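Example 3.2
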Amino acid sequence: MNEQLAIQSLLRSKLAELQNKNSRYSLRAFANKVGVHVGALSSILNGRRNISRNLAARISQGLLLDPQERSEILGLFPDKRANSQSRNDIDLDLLAPRYLELNASHFKIIAEWEHFAILSLLKCADFQNCYHWISRRLGITMARTKVVMGRLVKFGLVEVDNEGILRRSKMSYRTADDVDDLALKKNHDQSFELARKSLFQDCVNQRDFTSMTMAIGPKKLNIAKERIRKFQDELSDLLESGHQVEVYRLSMQLFPLSKKEKDKKDEKF
């Protein structure tokens, strides 16, 4: 029964967090995010429906939980397959705590925008070696600044010399394990939220939002992706040259508005 209460508590907490950011955020929108029918979600929240381990795993993915959070939730559910799984197929929640801790930290570096924002801020000409200054410049709390900086130091992305001076290390950061896709989804999700705030808080001369609607041939999407990445690289080279004093994020979205039509042979009459 503890596992059911834990899922209910998690869902209520996440829903309240989203509604605090946007008072219009609905239960239906939350259900779409989680990947559960709104009626089923309502029943779970009200304690009228128990959930299985598979559904708990799906909810964990929909909520973009990091490996350690996912482990804590799924660890409450007995897994009958655990003894029959090979080492290569074993779930994250069955792995050693140290492995989970490292993967959770790795997940957060990719998923949470403040990490790469601080790395970029370190390149600014007016950077001050002061957590209060970093906190003010990024509009985050001191506690959050310390957590993020601690993670960057732990992973060797930021170095602290004998005098306590912070510097970016020369180490490059590569993503190469199966938590990356989920982490990137959370990163993009945060980008939408950051963009929404900028739309209403920043003057138009400090930002540039454009969009266009097109009728396209999907076979050209690979070419479009190549050109988008080339453009991003060229723009990055241009903007990062010379005097650097602010941190910006460039986000571009190209996605379908229309839904694929079913083949005639698949239609039911």
